[in-house]
Amino acid sequence: MKLAEAKRGQRLYIAAIPNPTVRAQAIRFGIAEGAEVECYEKLPAGPVVVCKGKQEIAIGRKLAENIEVRPA
């Protein structure tokens, strides 16, 4: 499942970020493979907002389509 497909309130583990460029961008946000996040908000045709700890991170839809997740 891709992060862009997550439902609001769903807790997820980052399973894989296969593209090295996307992986580098995600690491800059503090998100790496194995991290647990919660889908806080999903804006129509906009970013996916995830919570990691007390930090809220808005991830663009194109980037979210390249991040594989699994339910926590």
TrEMBL record:
It comes from the Bacteria. GO terms for molecular function: transition metal ion binding. The keyword Iron applies. Residues 1-71 form the Ferrous iron transporter FeoA-like domain. Keywords: Iron. This is FeoA domain protein. It comes from Methylomusa anaerophila.
